[in-house]
Amino acid sequence: MSNKLYVGNLPYSATSDQLREMFSQAGTVSDCVVITDRQSGRSKGFGFVEFEKEEDAKKAIELFNEKEMDGRKLVVNEARPKRDDEGAPAE
Fold it and tell me: Residue 5: which of 45, 44, 47, 63 has the closest Cα?
């Protein structure tokens, strides 16, 4: 398992700092980011949290998957590697 987690269904008001604070309950967070729209700067409703230890990432899934944050049930699972074709314009 990877140390990097995908966190989906975030409230659009969620910030990287809030995510880091919340997920640090599971262990030491080495990186945390809420993905935002380039033009508007608004959250896209998902982000990534990376832990120093794999066991902390597993604990975070147990603690936060389907947990409510501002009325939204979070989706927390292992992050998948980015595919080469993501973000490429459709032909």
Answer: 47
Question: Which structural domains are found in the chain, ordered by start?
Answer: 4-78 (3.30.70.330)
Residue 4 tokens, joined? 């990097």
- Model pLDDT for residues 3-45, shown as the tens digit of each residue: 999 999 999 999 999 999 999 999 999 999 999 999 998 999 9
Closest CA to 8 of 61, 85, 51: 61
Residues 6+ apart with CB under 8 A from 27: 51, 52, 53, 55, 56, 57, 59, 60
Calculate the CA 85 to chain-centre distance: 21
Is-contact 11 70, C-beta < 8 A?
yes
